[in-house]
């Protein structure tokens, strides 16, 4: 099992990864409108992580 510290780090990394992923997706969608940004609930989930 993870310690609380490790758990926090994993969640933080996941949130940062989701943010960077959305930046890439948004950059692609300006060039190619067929690329949709991630669903709002996925982004909200990532942002909600402390």
Model description:
By secondary structure, the protein is mostly helical. It has one domain. Helix content is 74%, strand content 0%. It is built from 2 helices and no strands. Helix 1 runs antiparallel to helix 2. The longest helix is centred in the middle third of the chain and has 28 residues. The protein is elongated.
Structure characteristics:
50 residues
In terms of topology, how is this protein built?
Layout: H1 4-31, H2 40-48
Helix pairs in contact: 1-2
Main β-sheet description = none
Number of separate structural domains: 1
Helix share bin: over 70%
Q: Termini distance?
A: 20 Å
**C-alpha Rg (nearest Å):** 13 Å
Counted beta strands: 0
Shape: elongated
Low-confidence stretches: none
Chain oligomer state: single chain
Please state the average pLDDT score: 74
What is the H-and-E element order? HH
Total number of helices: 2
Structural class: mainly alpha
Task: Tell me the fraction of residues in β-strands, as a range.
Answer: under 5%
Region (Disordered): 30-50
Explain briefly what this protein structure is:
This protein is mainly α. It is 74% helix and 0% strand. The longest helix has 28 residues, at 4-31.
């Amino acid at each position: 099992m993870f310690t609380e510290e490790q758990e926090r780090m994993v969640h933080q990394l996941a949130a940062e990864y989701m943010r960077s992923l959305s930046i890439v997706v948004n950059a692609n969608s300006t060039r190619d409108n067929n690329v949709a940004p991630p669903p709002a609930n996925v982004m909200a989930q990532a942002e909600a992580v402390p």
